[in-house]
Amino acid sequence: MNYWKFICATDNAEILTAFLSQLEFDSFEETENGLHAYLPERALNEEFEKQLTQVQQTFPFTFRKEFIKWENWNKKWEDNFTPIIVDDFCGIRATFHEPLENVKHKIIINPKMAFGTGHHETTRLVINGMKDVDFKDKSVLDYGCGTGVLAFLAEKLGASELIGVDIEQPAFENAKENAQLNQMQNIQFFMGTLDDIPTKTFDRILANINRNVLLDSIPTLKQLLNPNGVILFSGILEQDLPIMNQCLSANDLNTQKTLSENNWMMLHVTHA
């Protein structure tokens, strides 16, 4: 997938990230001079430009944009991919790295995309949140699966039946490749939305996407969650917590616990 890279000049990248995360940007990178925000090529249209102008009127900033082809995006992330260690709980490396030591659960991926490698706070937060959740013999949905890392960890933690879904074809293909690398046995991957997965319910749902998609998906995810199930939501900024909790409450879901890192949050959610 091709991207537009918005190179934004601002003195407060954190606040600007909060505003832009309400649009269709799907990743951000703070820089010395401001913020880089990445927009899927298909999302750049007249409606988006109106929304961006509204943000500039509320929180002034300047920007220029660069077009990034998919191949270049892949190479940038692969060239800069370093192993990730989350305490002694989970280690993530690429095939071109040396084997990891002193971690309980080891995952290997070929990083052909920017999402789900473990480098971003949102993925690490879910991994940390998974420490305290029982996955033994549970059914799991990895919503917005990216490289498949979270689904792989869930299987290593004992999950018996797993489904991963992502709207992007490169993510779907990469997740299947990485499943073979990790000799996963119980995972099926689908390309598309929640409407494209088999009709069933789940004991555990891992939803690491972005605020707008999560808010739109909460009613459906509630229906997909078994009575004693758990959802781990990530991709949420601290300032998004009130609107998330409002939507959760309206759908009879409760936040039982939160984790945070650098203004990003993970919510451990159950039925009310």
Indicate how many domains the architecture comprises: 2
Structural class: alpha/beta
Low-confidence sequence ranges: none
Helical percentage = 25-40%
Q: What's the story with the biggest beta sheet?
A: 7 strands, mixed
Strand order of the largest sheet: 10-9-8-11-12-14-13
Straight-line N-to-C gap: 39 Å
> At the fourth CATH level, what is the homologous superfamily of the largest domain?
Vaccinia Virus protein VP39
Q: Which fold name fills CATH's third level, the topology of the largest domain?
A: Rossmann fold
The radius of gyration over CA amounts to 18 Å
SSE ordering: EHEEHEHEEEHEHEHEEHEHEE
Q: What percent of residues are in strands? A: 25-35%
Provide keyphrases for this structure.
7-stranded mixed beta sheet, Rossmann fold, 34% strand, 4-stranded antiparallel beta sheet, globular, 32% helix
